[in-house]
Amino acid sequence: MVVKRIENVPGRGLIVKVDPPREPSIPLEHVPCDLVLAIDVSGSMIADAPVPTKPGEEVESTGLSVLDLVKHAARTIVETLNENDRLGIVTFSSASTVLQKLLPMTAENKVKTDEKIESMIPKDATNLWHGIRDGLKLFNDDDSTDMPKRIPALMVLTDGCPNHMCPVQGYVPKLRGMGELAAIINTFGFGYNLRSGLLKSIAEVSGGSYAFIPDAGMVGTVFVHAVANLQSTFAQKALLRLTYPSNIVEPSPQADQAPAIKLPTDHPLGPDYSELTINLHNLQYGQSRDIFLEYSSLESTRPITASLTYQRLNSTPETLPLSILDPSGPAPSPGYTPAEIAYHISRSKLVSFLLSLTPRSTHDEERTPQIPLPDEIQSRLTDLITFLPCNSDPSSLLNKSLLQDLTGQISLAIQKPEYYSRWGVHYLPSLADAHFKQACNSFKDPGPLMYGSCSPLFIQCRDRLDRAFDDLPPPRPSNNTWIHGMGLKRTGEGGYTWMDFRMSSYNSRDNPCFAGCVRVLLAAGEDIREAEEEKGKRPRRMARSIKISKLRAGMQVQTPRGPRRVVAVLKTAVRKQEMCLVGKKGLLVTPWHPVALPTTGTPSSSSSSTSWTFPREIARRKVRYTGSIYSVLLERDGDSAAHALFVGGVWGVTLGHGLVSRNTGAGSSQGDVRAHPFFGDYTAVVRALERLHRNSGGLVLGGGVKRDERTGLAGKKESRRVARRAKAAAVAPRPVDKLRPIVRCPTVRYNRRTRLGRGFTLAELKAAGIPKLYAPTIGIAVDARRQNLSEEGLAANVERLKAYKARLIVFPRKQKVKSTDTPKDQQSGETTQSIRAAFGVEQAVAPGFTEIKKSDLPKAVDGGAYRALRKARSDARLVGVRQKRADDKAAAEKEKAK
């Protein structure tokens, strides 16, 4: 039973208390819930999530990405649900995807859900609106009526700003236009690149909560508390209605409520009364909701009433009888101690102060943080701390927790502009939300930790979720990380294990190169003079090995298959590049450049794929290197073993070795670690090197490696080929492109050349007998803006359309055959995936027309046609002037001759 009470605070205001039961009458593991997880899978979610450390300690990376931790938190939620709960999953990037509709969390469905959670991968943009829309739609589309009702909630996690297909009118007006939402929306913002005001506004309009997750260490605790609050819900859709004299109570500005309205003149209480509705949304077991309303003038003797409506699971809405505060009657027994009254007044003022830093916009109702903060904020905070009522009893745990928040993180957040703009602007709205809803949102802040401390069910749910988060097997890192230069990764048990990097060879941002100081072995008999670096010695000497920085095209180096000629040397400048020290001579090489240790001190005569490995797996230690690194391309050879050189006492693979697929390598079942779709393709490497600049010394100068955004691998050849195949398979048996017209290139100089145009004109379609609306449905591009300027071009494209139509096969979509469908006896024959391959760019000359040969064209006018035309126009314009000038000159000479 809910206890509702109004208590007068003389001279200050009144406090309305809504107190749900401490715990359920029947023991429960938790309250059944319907949860939908809307998870951001934009590209930024692949960012590293390092282990939080103490100030001054080195940040330790485990290879876990932000998305890895979010998936682990999602699995934690799944682990603590049972068959009475349901879970749905929506992911959003540039578009949203429903991974799973609401399913009961039976043992079988939990396995399926874990698989779908694991399948999430980072993609591209952030389409937050579609994620919210499709998440809410899962509740609206739910047609299961035989299941008991549950507490619905949409949990949205994002790490950035929405940048794709945002509602024009704004998120809040768009959500309000949807009417009563099917679930509250809890928003979670990870990191520092957030529109926290928007996330707070979305949570407010739906009755949910907003939480800020600054780093990886807060993911678990924030999710744990959010779900524990849902699992300890007593009732939902709670509405508190207050009726009071208009000149007495001023609603606190932090309350998320509709504006107070004046009662009509025929109301029994009279027109000078107002009614205020406060939406409390979810009420939790064992946690009261205390609303402080401040007097705007002197107290009155007229009564104040309050009523509460709420809905419990499996029941209709309930309304508690009116509570009446009559100042003229006998004083009721106090329900609050003086310390509690001071606490709730102070809490109300604290929330008002925090929300004043993010006022609502009048345009789209979105909270917009004040950046930079006004100059008077520091003095306002000082006055708030000094004059808060909680200072009257600082020994109270409640009052002490508020003061700790104020003098701790709140003061720090606005102490310096850089603190506020980086994390304070996101953290303070989250703290305000926790204090206003009186809900614990993490283990971190002293103030919110007071909430739920008297609720056995909340504590039970929180502890169970916390244990599940810690006890679940650690997630598999998607960003494999090398620790302490030993080729190790950290495990969930606190130890280390050897990392398996063979799953994605070369999958790194590093360049595959050697440091310029290492020495490379030349072929036997190669006569090379090397400049002496140290002064005071002979300027040149003979050497069989030279620094790789002095290796040039045309020289011969030793390979496992004998001498081979150097075709090109690539030089790339780097700064603080991670490098590995390998072998006894200390070869300095990038971590993902495959090497092989020789069995003896001299170069071996063979090279087996089983001996090749990555430097980071056998490195003595890692270092940071600034300078130039070098890669080598040898002459083409069908034997991959001939594409290696002996450098720094170790065999190192060179570019273009011929292994482009891991299945092409011999040796272990995992394939050859040298295999790479770009670095192994000799033709692709040569083509890429040809586009780079060469200096006067013959070195090819590179600026790094351009990588595929989707796979992270160097070069895009393979990913583009895969994309083309996927597109062809998706549209088969249709071609992947459209039929386009043949057009002449612009300007007289180039109009004898032809190219593909944007689309056919309406006149061309009409002449070919193809309706303009039907053409796009059969793979014909249409451009209504283009006009035909020649009969030849029109006739040529009409013939092109007729030839296409003759080869076209249109399958009937339904059993009833249309007139435009191809007869069944003709629905066979050779097909093509590319229209351009079948209808190429040929000379656009239709039958009946001939094109003048270039040799038959009139000879060009001396000086050019433009000059000739300009002279003709000038002569016609100036003929009178010139004639008069000539006549005057003749008259002058005649006069002079007299």
From TrEMBL:
Q: Which family does it belong to?
A: Belongs to the eukaryotic ribosomal protein eL13 family.
Under InterPro entries, the record lists: Ribosomal_eL13, Ribosomal_eL13_CS, Vint_dom, Vwaint_dom, VWF_A, vWFA_dom_sf
Keywords assigned: Ribonucleoprotein, Ribosomal protein
> This protein's superkingdom?
Eukaryota
The name under which this protein is listed is: 60S ribosomal protein L13
One GO cellular component this record assigns the protein to is:
cytosolic large ribosomal subunit
Organism lineage reads as: Eukaryota, Fungi, Dikarya, Ascomycota, Pezizomycotina
Q: Name one Pfam family in it.
A: Vwaint
Q: Which GO terms describe its biological process?
A: translation
State where composition is biased (Basic and acidic residues): 884-898
Q: Which organism is it from?
A: Rhypophila decipiens
Stretches for region Disordered = 879-898
Q: Single GO molecular-function term?
A: RNA binding
Occurrences of domain VWFA (ranges): 34-212
Q: SUPFAM superfamilies, from UniProt? A: vWA-like (SSF53300)
